[in-house]
Amino acid sequence: MADKIHPSSKQFTGKPNPNFPASKPRPVYRPQALRNRRSCCCRFCLWITVLLLVLILIAAAAGGAFYVLYRPHRPSFAVTSLQVVQFNLTSSNQLNTKFNFTVTARNPNKKITFGFDSVSVAIDSNGVDVGHGLIPAFVMPKKNVTRLRTVVAANGRSVEDSSGLKSDLKSKKSVPVVIRLDTKVKVKVGSLKTKKVPIRVVCKGVRVTPPVGKAVTTASSDDVECEVDVRIKIWKWTI
Question: Which stretches of sequence are listed as region Disordered (predicted)?
Fold first, then answer.
């Protein structure tokens, strides 16, 4: 005997159940595209690294070849003479000075010529500016020695009571001074010329004795050391 099937009292109306919201479609995952991007980035970084290494090797090889061919050396400077014509301080703390300054410049290179702009000369003692002078522009050929002369002077320069220079002048002892030369130089190697580069020459170890009356004294410059520094300016800093 066949069983009878009784239809359910709940009929399907075709509407979704409100208790279960419709699911959103998931984004399609494409791993192959990400792999391609990473591969391109790695290749780009690798080529940049290789290019930088090649440029560094080329620059090092060029610098080594230049050094072997030309054996470059910096020009040297030495204080030849510093005569003190006047070095006194008035009762109102006004400083008056006059120096006859001679410096010897040497170019030890066989294949390099130096061209100097005008040279600014400054002398200071205990942090006090005691005179300024100027040397005209000049050229130093290969294996050349040049003597340069100028007058360094100051008139009516104020000196503070607490300055060490004032006490040194009152004691009538020898006074230590520092000489600074500032200029720009360009280098010529064959037909090649470089741009002008600022340099500073600092000479320490000089001691002067203030003269009495019209007598002229000569500074002691036997142990003077002059250092040549190339001054390269990067943005706001000078190296």
Answer: 1-26
Q: Structurally, what CATH architecture does the domain formed by 76-238 represent? A: Sandwich (2.60)
The answer to whether 146 and 116 have CB atoms below 8 angstroms apart is no
User: Of 107, 116, 119, 105, which is closest to residue 139 (Cα–Cα)?
Assistant: 116
**In the beta sheet, which residues pair with residue 220?**
207
Rounded to a whole number of angstroms, the CA Rg of the chain reads: 40
Contact 187, 220 (CB under 8 A): no
Domains of the chain, by residue range, sit at: 35-70, 76-238
DSSP per-residue string spanning 118-129: -EEEEEEETTEE
d(CA 126, CA 160) in angstroms, rounded, equals 12
Q: What is the pTM of this model?
A: 0.69
d(CA 179, CA 219): 12
Query: By 3-state DSSP, what share of the chain in percent is helix, strand and coil, each rounded to 5?
Result: 20, 45, 35
Query: What totals of helices (H) and strands (E) does the chain contain, helices first?
Result: 2, 14
Nearest-angstrom CA–CA distance, 29 and 59: 48
| Spatial distance between the Cα atoms of 95 and 177, rounded to a whole number of angstroms | 15
The 10s digit of each residue's pLDDT in 134-158 is: 999 999 999 999 999 999 999 988 8
Comparing 121-125, 131-135, 158-162, the range with the smallest average pLDDT is: 158-162
β-strands 138-140, 217-218: how paired?
Answer: unpaired
| Cβ neighbourhood burial of 178 (10 Å; 0-12, 13-18, 19+) | middle
